[in-house]
Amino acid sequence: MDEITDEAEAVRRPAGDAESSRANRMWWDRNADEYQKDHGEFLGDARFVWCPEGLDEEEARLLAPAGALAGAAVLEIGAGAAQCSRWLAAQGARPVALDLAHRQLQHALRIGDGLGGSAEVPAFPLVEADARALPFADGSFDLACSAFGALPFVADPERVLREVRRVLRPGGRWVFSVTHPLRWALPDEPGREGLAVLSSYFDRTPYVEEDAQGRTVYVEHHRTLGDRVRDVVGAGFRLVDLVEPEWPEWNQQVWGGWSPLRGRLIPGTAIFVCERD
Ligand SMILES: C[S@@+](CC[C@H](N)C(=O)[O-])C[C@H]1O[C@@H](n2cnc3c(N)ncnc32)[C@H](O)[C@@H]1O
């Protein structure tokens, strides 16, 4: 859960698929500048950071072994300013960076200095679309990835997973990170107050922010760990690993509810490594 827009009020209540998508498009358009200002340096312009713990694909190699990305067609979902895609392009992959929010993709253009590319980072397409309906033909990609993009925000994550499976070729790999489901039972605070269980882990009621007029301006959806596994398997993937990155000594940053204090005690991120047969 990220910063609240002006005078927004947080509640737990149901929120449908269309309502969630509409609110999040608006929220990410409005908050993209602040998000990139606050987190851009940590993310790096051409790094592939999976999570606030700082796990980097350069070291983790969850998508493909070193050297195996050259020529691979990779779809990045909820790409934001496309930092991960930029790293993929520099490895010789052929990424496509997709995001719902126009303003996030404008930051991709800003960082990349337009669409021209460079000797170090070849050009790649940016696509403004909703992950719930991917505008690509079946079997278009070898790999797909998402670092906290789309999945935490949609009411029907299995729909997104089915779409990802459709656009992947047989044998394709799909790796995505989300907030660790355990975090939902605790307040989203980086200090000691964020270490007490205050609500039920089993309560799937969405987290919603409303503005002064009662309009929905932000939504996040909770899935338990078991729900996420069932979504993955139900969409036709094989789950080959579930990575819970530990907080490294070097990382002293606080990012929303993520902090060294909490990171040493409880997981903050879950990364699902899936394959399509
Ligand atoms: C937390 S940001 C992550 C961005 C990037 N991966 C990063 O690590 O900085 C979440 C991104 O998901 C995008 N997003 C939210 N819902 C989406 C949807 N339904 N389809 C595509 N993108 C979506 C948002 O616009 C936002 O850019």
UniProtKB/TrEMBL annotation:
One of its GO terms (biological process) is methylation. CDD domains: AdoMet_MTases (cd02440). Residues 75-176 form the Methyltransferase type domain. It holds the Pfam family Methyltransf_11. It comes from Streptomyces albiaxialis. Keywords: Methyltransferase, Transferase. InterPro entries: Methyltransf_11, SAM-dependent_MTases_sf. It comes from the Bacteria. This is Class I SAM-dependent methyltransferase. GO terms for molecular function: methyltransferase activity.
